[in-house]
Design goal:
alpha+beta, seven-stranded mixed beta sheet, globular, disordered N terminus, about 30% strand, five-stranded antiparallel beta sheet, single chain, about 260 residues, 3 helices, about 20% helix
Length: about 260
């Protein structure tokens, strides 16, 4: 199992001037928000597995999917097949503190395009303060339950920190890259006709204490208008401007 500490991944990205991006779902940090953790209306999956300790390490995993005639607030909890990758185990969904749900895209606050879809993974591990994410996917369905698209996090395992526990989230975001955003828009041009679900899984033995949650929201992608450029990107732009100026001076000298 490949595992990387998130701080190292982010540091390396800053050195190279690029975001820690992977195919399909892109990891990006966001601003901490309160009142958006467990129990929020946009909660897709809430998972808890406390069979660690003296018992064999457990894999915390859960999923929701939309079926024809299915209940939005009590959806099917079967995980989608992520072939060629192993299927998520599922089975750890809990409704005790937040629940599980699928949502019409038109009901997601601030969403004006399917390309803005993103997940926030909220870690709640008091005393341990981390959990290792191994799998995450977002699934889009038509109203009749037909699976339209699956977007999966394809990067290395991530050790995500607990940034406030229950009731807080926002830092650990997973959004669509440009190509996948275009696919989402093509599949769900009419937000009233599409439903979003998904699944999440953590490495065996890395979760305990209170539940983790995944919520859906509307987010900008790296490179979108309004995004603040990273230091590396600003440096590259500066070098480009210097080179362009030198070229113009050389051409003027030849005249």
């Amino acid at each position: 199992m490949k595992s990387t500490i998130l701080k190292l991944a982010v540091s390396a990205a800053l050195v190279t001037g690029a975001s820690p991006a992977f195919a399909n779902l892109v990891y990006q940090t966001g601003v901490q928000q309160t009142g958006t953790g467990l129990g929020a209306v946009s909660t897709v999956v809430t998972v808890q597995d406390n069979t660690n300790g003296p018992q064999p390490p457990a894999t915390e995993s859960g999923c929701v999917r939309h079926t024809n005639g299915g209940n939005m607030t009590n959806p099917d909890q079967t995980c989608e097949d992520l072939t060629p990758n192993p299927n998520l185990e599922g089975g750890d969904n809990t409704a005790a503190v937040g629940g599980n749900g699928v949502y019409l895209l038109s009901d997601i606050d601030g969403l004006t395009s399917a390309g803005q879809l993103g997940f926030v993974v909220n870690i709640s591990e008091p005393g341990v303060d981390t959990a290792t994410l191994t799998d995450l996917y977002m699934s889009l369905y038509s109203l009749d339950g037909t699976l339209l698209e699956i977007f999966e996090y394809m990067g290395p395992d991530l050790i995500l920190t607990d940034t406030g526990g229950i009731g807080q989230s926002g830092l650990h975001r997973f959004v669509l890259d440009a190509a996948q955003a275009a696919d989402a828009v093509a599949a769900c041009g009419d937000l009233t006709q599409c439903v979003v679900g998904g699944g999440v899984q953590f490495a065996p033995g890395t979760t305990q204490a209170t539940p983790e949650t995944v919520r859906v929201g509307a987010f900008s992608r790296p490179g979108d208008p309004g995004e603040v450029p990273e230091p590396g990107s600003i440096a590259l732009l500066g070098l480009g401007a210097v080179a362009f100026g030198a070229l113009r001076r050389r051409q003027a000298a030849k005249k």
